[in-house]
Amino acid sequence: MGQKIVKVMFIGDVVGNPGLKMVDLLLKNFIKKYSVDFVICNGENAHNGKGMSLESLNQLLEAGVQVVTGGNHTWSNFNFFETLKTHPQVLRPQNYPKGTYGKGYGIYKIPGGLGDIAVINLQGRTFMYPIDCPFRTADWVIKQLKDQVRYIFVDIHAEATAEKIALGWYLDGRVSAVIGTHTHVQTADERILPKGTGYCTDVGMTGPQTSVIGMQIKSAVDRMLYQTPHKYECAEDDVHFSAVVVTFEAEKGKTVAIERIFYPEFDRGMS
Amino acid sequence: MGQKIVKVMFIGDVVGNPGLKMVDLLLKNFIKKYSVDFVICNGENAHNGKGMSLESLNQLLEAGVQVVTGGNHTWSNFNFFETLKTHPQVLRPQNYPKGTYGKGYGIYKIPGGLGDIAVINLQGRTFMYPIDCPFRTADWVIKQLKDQVRYIFVDIHAEATAEKIALGWYLDGRVSAVIGTHTHVQTADERILPKGTGYCTDVGMTGPQTSVIGMQIKSAVDRMLYQTPHKYECAEDDVHFSAVVVTFEAEKGKTVAIERIFYPEFDRGMS
Amino acid sequence: MGQKIVKVMFIGDVVGNPGLKMVDLLLKNFIKKYSVDFVICNGENAHNGKGMSLESLNQLLEAGVQVVTGGNHTWSNFNFFETLKTHPQVLRPQNYPKGTYGKGYGIYKIPGGLGDIAVINLQGRTFMYPIDCPFRTADWVIKQLKDQVRYIFVDIHAEATAEKIALGWYLDGRVSAVIGTHTHVQTADERILPKGTGYCTDVGMTGPQTSVIGMQIKSAVDRMLYQTPHKYECAEDDVHFSAVVVTFEAEKGKTVAIERIFYPEFDRGMS
Amino acid sequence: MGQKIVKVMFIGDVVGNPGLKMVDLLLKNFIKKYSVDFVICNGENAHNGKGMSLESLNQLLEAGVQVVTGGNHTWSNFNFFETLKTHPQVLRPQNYPKGTYGKGYGIYKIPGGLGDIAVINLQGRTFMYPIDCPFRTADWVIKQLKDQVRYIFVDIHAEATAEKIALGWYLDGRVSAVIGTHTHVQTADERILPKGTGYCTDVGMTGPQTSVIGMQIKSAVDRMLYQTPHKYECAEDDVHFSAVVVTFEAEKGKTVAIERIFYPEFDRGMS
Ligand SMILES: [Fe+2]
Ligand SMILES: [Fe+2]
Ligand SMILES: [Fe+2]
Ligand SMILES: [Fe+2]
Ligand SMILES: [Fe+2]
Ligand SMILES: [Fe+2]
Ligand SMILES: [Fe+2]
Ligand SMILES: [Fe+2]
Fold first, then answer.
1. CATH number, span B5-208+236-263
2. Which annotated residues bind Fe cation 1 (chains A, B, C, D) (predicted)?
């Protein structure tokens, strides 16, 4: 009798070399520990905190990641645009307008003969760019996928909690999981929605936490104090690993368990 | 010998009557369970999801809350503005410009002779309104408070994670805790910063969770699908209680423990 | 020998009763003075400064307007939504998503047997709402219109000058005119683009000029000083009429003349 | 008997080398033609369209400009920040927070013994950055200037028409003129407000008009079509000169005449 579940790990925004090293260091252990079958990772900040590069993509793939999703920062490194066309393992949000480099969803084989999984990368618009509607784009992709896959994983890269939550309800029962990225802070609202879709507003960042969402503290504070440009420099210290593991049942592809990972834990004292 | 610690509970954005009832129902038990000495609550959505009213303020005070903070929605109900002047238990963000109704910080007695605590309410500006600088306003208030209080609690009501985290670092070692509100989603990043300030990006909402941050799902999704106005209607179902409990040591007022509360827990299945 | 030209007047955002009265008072004279064949008017602020009503629509039509365009404020009055469906003389921006009330373009007969004119209402997205792309929507509408009309008039309701100008260049040679609304200030850049499209960034407001874009000065200034809500009240004094007259040649529908009207003139002293 | 008036020319956002050359070519003739006593120029886009440089500053000064104001793009060229400290002829918006490089107002001698003029550079916040309040900053500067100067000229660099107009009314009778910049499109609303302040929402750009506010058309359109970064490249063709000339009477410094200049005129055909 075959395996009845599939476990997917989704790693949140990997920031710069500190984040890449952390993934390289820990991922294989986590895969074993959590019996993970498939790994997805948001990489929009992998290249020094801004965008991706072929090198950072390769590092993630070698570390054990199968699919790398993106976001608004995917466009920060012009040199990466060609790679978006040539490498099916890397996605950018699907709801960028037709004519944009690369693609926003793909169907991938889960190792071990566990079937196929579709990964969809979407981006929100509230406080971000007026690209195509993520809700209708999701409808369209799901229609394309019809009957081809049992498992559908959605990375919703967005700023506003309301937009992510609305998408979760909108897709409940139609996809396996809707997990958010972009804010670089892990939220504690992981849950299984009533019709079986796993949901979490944000996975959080895999990167240096003595920072302001990955950036050196002084520059980040100065930007706010003076509202003038201050050079982005990737922070380096106190690197943590942020991820979510979702367990899908094999019959309908619904989420039967969702678990957050944040490692190592922050100092919370003792009450 | 006297008590060496003070425990403060901070309840996140209470939404409408469902949220108010939840506070009324659970707060006294939580106070006992966690040995809480002082309760602060963000109430900007208490009046049907939009602003406050004298009635909702009284309900919170009767339920056991000592100080009610606000945010951008404080201004949603014109009828409440006078109450801002007459009731020292209610605050609005201090960094609204001089000339605005009400005040944004206060000094309060902790019951049981445990000394005084200052509560400061601040609001972010990223993706919000261009009010006064929350960083410099914090500096100014802290200077006013000099030597008057041992404990200083900051509610930073803001949208962007970067702005809240930056304020946390900016105030580390100068206040007892910096806890965020406004996004209505609890974050999992509660921690004690290196110099002793308790920090959490967002406490999350105390209100109906079968909703989009408290609003009925259909209206909220329609707003995003059509980008036209759809009447705000407060949701009602699946009410949860969101809070953070911070423990301050009595000598310097630093945080020695920080703990999130989300009750009841969401369905997360079993891995 | 037939008439070789068609003259279209486009009146900018009519604000409240003061604006409606001004149109009623002056339009027929202006039509005569400028030999106008067809009148279009942006009415998004006709109903007390916020949205439209059936009554204000009728007032505009009776005053001599043939088509009334809209904008973001079209949605400010819920009671008007049905009228959007029943009255083909009123448009709302076409690039609101499918499923929105009303329509955003129409074909209308020019009185005097001068042929048909299409009017397209579009809305920008920069600093506004993330609706469908106005550029691609224009492409789509133009395709629908193919060979049905000689004259195409576009009202681009937008905030950012860059977005309006970009649309002007994008449509140059494909439509008769691209004229902007929404900022309530008339711009002095009316021109004929190289391929024959008439262009002006904004027609300006037809309404009370002792105001802040139609609103009473004190409330408007207080909104900026305090960043809190202050009741919108329509101003009343110093009403001016703002319009543009474009002259199209009859063969290809290109603009051969463009002229701004602002009446009465402001006091500019004497140099 | 001495001269009873002072004439000030204000040149709108000079864009790149095309704009600089235009100023060099035409300014001296315009000074003669309009009997201009003092020239102010917004230079935030002088350095290849983005920020300023010492070289572009010198070119403007040599061409006959006395004071160069700035805006949000002042910060686009890091190399210029030192010059902000060393050259009193260059200003940046005064309402950037304390601690920012440079200053935002100055008192300057009008050649010919015509007395002193203060120039104040302010920046709006709507759709821009949450810097200090431009209204209150204006109050503060005017207080500093008390009795030192007869003429006060304000460059309000802002996006929203409402914010500029509100500032005009707010300062009416307290300064000689409030003239806007930043949108790069000249507005036709130049006027003398009731208490004697000259006002115009935007002077417009001195730069290449076969462009989108100075940028090459294709890149600008692509930015809007795809919402991804496209390299800013300064356009080159069809350069126009945009300015306003205000005439102040010598007793109280009020505006007695205001005139727009846009040279050469656009093609407007013949009605
Ligand atoms: Fe990111
Ligand atoms: Fe992002
Ligand atoms: Fe709230
Ligand atoms: Fe809020
Ligand atoms: Fe309008
Ligand atoms: Fe509008
Ligand atoms: Fe500019
Ligand atoms: Fe600017």
1. 3.60.21.10
2. 13, 44-45, 184
